[in-house]
């Protein structure tokens, strides 16, 4: 899976909410730990839905993490131990500086695995994710199941009325939808407002 990763590389795991991004990131983490390749695991301070100190998947799998405010804080954390990889969850909540940080880490020889939403609730590129996918050596785009038609879902539909881009939520606020059902839902919200 990570042949010659010592040369440094970036992998992005992306897709809509409920597609298993954190679960996939935690799977990569277990593989690295099994191979005795110590990973630094971080997530943004903003993400406090399930835990402040852990990455938690919807299936209940979790792992301790550092929560950071700024992506450049990763460089300070790397000084504390001999890490071989950097895993970043909920990368969409970081600013565009994460792109430069991930690129620099890969250039230094680190394996960088980033997970996050590729689109916001308006189906627009979310945070640094589009730029990270552009420079990544590997991109895994996951899909969920549309809650309306049960086809493959590639978007996160916001059920509540709010224009705030960074609105933390789960099943009460969001659902996975395919393009067609997402567009129908947005149209219905506009007609009801």
UniProtKB/TrEMBL annotation:
It holds the Pfam family TK. The active site is at residue 90. ATP binds at residues 15-22, 89-92. Keywords: ATP-binding, Cytoplasm, DNA synthesis, Kinase, Metal-binding, Nucleotide-binding, Transferase, Zinc. GO terms for biological process: DNA biosynthetic process; thymidine metabolic process. It is an enzyme of class 2 (transferase). Zn(2+) binds at residues 146, 149, 178, 181. Its main location: cytoplasm. InterPro entries: P-loop_NTPase, Thymidine_kinase, Thymidine_kinase_CS. Its EC number is 2.7.1.21. Substrate binds at residue 174. GO terms for molecular function: ATP binding; thymidine kinase activity; zinc ion binding. SUPFAM superfamilies: Glucocorticoid receptor-like (DNA-binding domain), P-loop containing nucleoside triphosphate hydrolases. GO terms for cellular component: cytosol. It catalyses: thymidine + ATP = dTMP + ADP + H(+). It is found in: Cytoplasm. Belongs to the thymidine kinase family. Homotetramer. This is Thymidine kinase. It comes from Metamycoplasma subdolum. The gene is tdk.
């Amino acid at each position: 899976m990570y042949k010659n990763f010592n040369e440094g590389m970036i992998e992005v795991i992306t897709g809509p909410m409920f597609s298993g991004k954190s679960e996939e990131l935690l799977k990569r983490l277990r593989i690295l730990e099994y191979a005795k390749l110590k990973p630094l695991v971080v997530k943004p301070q903003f993400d406090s839905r399930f835990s402040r100190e852990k990455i938690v998947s919807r299936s209940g799998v979790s792992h301790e993490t550092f929560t950071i405010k700024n992506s450049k804080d990763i460089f300070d954390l790397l000084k504390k131990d001999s890490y071989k990889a950097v895993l970043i969850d909920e990368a969409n909540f970081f600013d565009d500086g994460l792109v430069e940080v991930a690129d620099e880490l890969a250039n230094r020889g680190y394996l960088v695995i980033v997970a996050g939403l590729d689109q916001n609730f308006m189906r627009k590129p979310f945070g640094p994710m589009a730029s990270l996918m552009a420079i990544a050596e590997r991109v895994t785009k996951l899909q969920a199941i549309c809650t309306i038609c049960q086809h493959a879902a590639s978007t996160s539909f916001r059920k509540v009325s709010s224009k705030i881009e960074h609105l933390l939520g789960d099943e009460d606020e969001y659902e996975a939808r395919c393009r067609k059902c997402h567009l129908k839902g947005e149209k219905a919200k506009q007609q009801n407002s």
